[in-house]
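Risk mitigation, structural track. In case the binding assays with fe (ii) ion fail to produce interpretable data, a predicted complex structure has been prepared as a fallback.
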Amino acid sequence: MRDQKRVTDYHCHILPGIDDGAETLESALLMARLFLKAGYKEICCTSHLIRGRYEASSAEILDARNQLQAEFNRAKIDIKLLLGREHYLDEFLFDNLKQPLLLEGTNLFLVEIPNLISIELVKEILFKVTCHGYVPLIAHPERCTLLELPTQENNNSRFWNFWSNQKSPIENHQSKMPTNLLTYLQDIGCQFQGNLGSFHGFYGKNIQKKAKSFEQASIYTHLGTDAHNPDHLKQILNIT
Ligand SMILES: [Fe+2]
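Fallback model:
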């Protein structure tokens, strides 16, 4: 998957002044020129949405996207900016399910799973996201300590799926049958976005190893830079 030519970045913090991503318009334009050099055509603007930290409204994101797109057009940067959001999985996520900013043109709901949260809560919340008709796209699963490839010991999902076909989805969900979290998320239809930097050690050797094992197991459905600034992006894309 990494060998294929990439034209869309599914995860990027390029909108200036919204979160901990690009700080200024100049910085966002520098990032855009790097994307252009690497052959990208579309960037999903996935600013963080975290209660108490990064709380820009959807209207503000739309406005920031439109302004940056106008700057791209002025500067003759032929890249399309798509709307999106990186949702933080916590108990406040339910408030964002009425009119979420999905990745533009899709029903993908990009969501980051923190390390310090119970597995049962992750299952409950993401199941509810699917009940709203959205497909959770799990951001950088290789960076989440709760997500591991299934082993015989931690996964009985295949037997469970056969048995649970006789029950309603709610009954299934309410069950406490032990199942590997990654397998559970696959079973309810989640997709998975890998960070390009993970594959060459940007987040350390352990995450690099995990990303490669996920890749080998065909876990990833999407890839993204998760870039926050030009220096970050240069390293991730390995360009100057
Ligand atoms: Fe991110």
